[in-house]
Amino acid sequence: MTTPHTPRGALIAIEGLDRAGKSTQCDLLLKRLNSSGIPATLQKFPDRTTAIGTTINSYLTSTSHLDDQSIHLLFSANRWERRDSLLSTLTSGTTILLDRYIYSGIVFTAAKPKSPVQPPNPLSIQWCKAPDIGLPRPDIIIFLNITQEDAEKRAGFGDERYEKKEMQEKVRRLFEELRGEGSNDKGDWWVIDAGGTVEEVAEEVWKGVLEGLRRVKEGNGEVRSI
Ligand code: NYM
Ligand code: MG
């Protein structure tokens, strides 16, 4: 049961390009946290288990088509429908690992080819970020940095929409832009070289997690917002 003395959990986002190893690292991390006595849970985005998630899944697997703005808003709605549960989980003292979050949301839409329209550009970073304003803000964003060459070598690349070289290169540039943008407090991003072995990457990820946990301990207990 929650008492006023239960320290809140940390909100830790894992981000990166497709095939950077996010899901592998999240699984390892979850085990390591729990075996270290730190209650933790995993929330993947998109969450394909909900009604909105089912629509997103059929878009990603190209069984349906949606215009760029509509699918963008659905990805955001898929996060909003989990907001209350994210907040109550954190308050109960459980740390949450997010396998992708709003940052993937912003860059994957902003990377799409622009149709010639009058400004304001409906796929600008600013436009893409707007629907996520107010969602819980991660205490740290661990970014798994992988080269295009390494990503392409990994199994399954190319299966889904967006898993094309040109798109991934744009996504890479936009992630760089976002990390350097100043739209985040200094130090929100923890960038890791994801080209090493699974064990090597896991060690670096763990350091980022410890930093996230430290920040929560030193904070005022409140979950910040985007
Ligand atoms: N993606 C993911 C988006 O386009 N917008 C979002 O808001 C999120 C969370 O979905 N290529 C894209 C990135 C991926 C794809 O993700 C599926 P995953 O982690 O492979 O299930
Ligand atoms: Mg994928």
Automatic annotation (TrEMBL):
Organism: Orbilia javanica
Keyword set includes Cell inner membrane: no
Name under which the protein is recorded: Thymidylate kinase
This protein's UniProt keywords: ATP-binding, Kinase, Nucleotide biosynthesis, Nucleotide-binding, Transferase
EC number from the UniProt entry: 2.7.4.9
Record CDD domains: TMPK
Matches recorded under InterPro entries: P-loop_NTPase, Thymidylate_kin-like_dom, Thymidylate_kin_CS, Thymidylate_kinase
Xref: SUPFAM superfamilies: P-loop containing nucleoside triphosphate hydrolases (SSF52540)
Gene name per UniProt: CDC8
GO MF term (any one): nucleoside diphosphate kinase activity
Gene3D superfamilies, alphabetized: P-loop containing nucleotide triphosphate hydrolases
NCBIfam families per UniProt: DTMP_kinase
